[in-house]
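Sequence in, structure out.
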Amino acid sequence: MHRSSAPMAALLLLPSLTLAPSMVRADPPRSPALTASPEPATKAAPKFQQLVIISFDGAHDNRLWERSLAMAPKVGAHFTYFLSCTFLMTRAEGGRAYRPSGHKVGASNVGYAQSRDEIATRVRHIWQAHQDGHDIGSHGCGHFDGKDWSEKDWSAEFTAFDAALDNAWKAGGIGAEEPDGWRGMIDGIKGFRAPYLSTSAGLVPAERKAGLSYDASLVTKGPAWPTPEDGIQRFGLPLIPEGPTGRRVIGMDYNLFVRHSMGVENRKDSATFEARTLKAYRDAFATQYDGSRIPLQLGFHFVEMNGGAYWRALETFLAETCSKPDVACVSYAQALPLIEARKKADPSAF
């Protein structure tokens, strides 16, 4: 889970943005009666796509895998799934294989899969997500706070993550079913989000060494372009206005859960929390859609907090948003080249 005290990301202007501009009809020239030489028609400024980037941390609950995979084509979206690797091994296996830095062998803050059958279902969902064009990213393994980790510690976590994915089909008892492209999918994982959004100076060097191209562990004062650091594009979840006073909160379901009910499950007021959340999402989107069109990032977990208020708000928000003109609901991996294209076409925005 992510805490509100995560460090603020520097609001540096960053790499690129989107696609081909769609031009608005030119203004008509002035009437000859008012000016001796009609001025040439001028064109309005181009409108670039508004990107909406939705991600899920942990990605363990198989029922919510099914729900998200069914949601995506209905609303016209692609997601990023940041996987926690202990959900691809049982506790018996993890107790022998996983060695988290600074913790006893087999420790995990989020537990393990309960059975091989659960793992088998999960790896099939991950593969379906990959085939459907979603972005598979890393959330590490045991969900530990890495604020004091060295580059070596982070590298060890990345190695453990890759090993868990490499062994996932065997761990699920269905090694014979492993698709030919599974290893290629692992090699193609390019993004990471740190548990608790907690990082250290060793993270980016370890990400670079692991062949990653983006990190999504920062927090920004509002929607912001990713910032380049040592070859890694660093994204940040934004602080967005929420509630009657418009006080800002990290655009993530867990932080809203803490804001609304102090992190204690409250199903009685679920509809109220849903309405507040939906309004916050709509307002944050409208500010960018009607303004600078900086990508809007929102984060979620495979947990239904406060009676599912935040997932319901997400589904409603995406259903009404992704089909709007000049909107693309994309994964982080899809957003990167679009941002680059925007930067080339509209460098002043950065």
